[in-house]
């Protein structure tokens, strides 16, 4: 064994590891160009337009994505006045490095033969690979925060603060959703999680030959993870750090040229990374779906790459679909969903799942007393939810009628006040005359009513 062969690289020679790293780097770059074209074409179809159709004949419109990448490489880089130059140019590098790093522990396929050596289609694996992916996502946010802080721009700073608060909110829920996967698989290593999902489901003592993928067994965790993917990647409808309406372009407002291209690249690779993690932890990874798993050669070797990229591309398609179908939410709705819905639901689900697993391991489910107690508790909770808040609240008092022309000129109503039903008919012709006469001409009660109204306002 050569000096560079260690536990980090398994039993692979160092040159095979280098080949894996270089090939994966090139694949991710080419895949990013494809996903840019793919998103533009899919959005065009969903919005009843063509999308890019010019440049290159083989894949129509692909040359547009390639041209955009080349343009960003050679475009002039402008440094804003007052910016911290070192941090300003270091921030996109951090985001760029972080978006590639997570792929080191994602298994793309099973064991294959490469240049006479048996190796796995994975750069490396560690016992806490899933936590490693979460930690890299946390480091990647530093590139966004530092970009906003160093740009000397209010728009950039607000965008970076939004992104950091969003990441904290949704990464907690994401970690809790992955805790259920760890409990079911008994491991945090990505290769072990994929192997655990390859075990067939057994229903009623009968082997169904259907792989037990966790998207079905852990459906609440899967739904929570899918929602948090959009929060982690700052994608629509959760792209609050890049709002064009109020922040121009958010944390990347002051960037141009190649540094801006780094953020553009990081966004798409991060989308692919989250899709690959979803495939690995919930969709069976590189394992073939049923019924293809019953065909031996289609569920082994290099075929794993086909299934992995097909599944991951389907998740990326879901990203694009949501962008076309769901509008951007407000910021308070974004934070309320994370803290008031996703995190509490994740906590309750993980606790219930842990209780159920413990009950099964200890044999409590075989006791009729335990089953009866669980049924009573569940029925009690259902009854409390359905009838616990059935007491009728006293009806709210009717709001007082409001006359917009009481003081001789129209004023808007205060909260709780409403215009009378006959307002439009009564004042459509009387408004100009009332406005010209003023409160002192005629009825003295109008003056008193005007004073009262002005005091309320």
TrEMBL record:
InterPro entries: NADH_UbQ_OxRdtase_su1/FPO, NADH_UbQ_OxRdtase_su1_CS. This is NADH-quinone oxidoreductase subunit H. Its EC number is 7.1.1.-. Residues 430-446 have a biased composition (Low complexity). It comes from Acidipropionibacterium virtanenii. Belongs to the complex I subunit 1 family. GO terms for molecular function: NADH dehydrogenase activity; oxidoreductase activity, acting on NAD(P)H, quinone or similar compound as acceptor; quinone binding. Residues 447-457 have a biased composition (Polar residues). NDH-1 is composed of 14 different subunits. Subunits NuoA, H, J, K, L, M, N constitute the membrane sector of the complex. It catalyses: a quinone + NADH + 5 H(+)(in) = a quinol + NAD(+) + 4 H(+)(out). Keywords: Cell membrane, Membrane, NAD, Oxidoreductase, Quinone, Translocase, Transmembrane, Transmembrane helix, Ubiquinone. The chain crosses the membrane at residues 14-38, 86-106, 126-149, 170-194, 214-231, 268-290, 302-322, 334-356, 368-387. PANTHER family: NADH DEHYDROGENASE SUBUNIT 1, NADH-UBIQUINONE OXIDOREDUCTASE CHAIN 1. NDH-1 shuttles electrons from NADH, via FMN and iron-sulfur (Fe-S) centers, to quinones in the respiratory chain. The immediate electron acceptor for the enzyme in this species is believed to be ubiquinone. Couples the redox reaction to proton translocation (for every two electrons transferred, four hydrogen ions are translocated across the cytoplasmic membrane), and thus conserves the redox energy in a proton gradient. This subunit may bind ubiquinone. The keyword Transmembrane helix applies. It is found in: Cell membrane; Membrane. One of its GO terms (cellular component) is plasma membrane. GO terms for biological process: aerobic respiration. It holds the Pfam family NADHdh. The keyword Membrane applies. Residues 430-457 are annotated as: Disordered. It is a multi-pass membrane protein. It is an enzyme of class 7 (translocase).
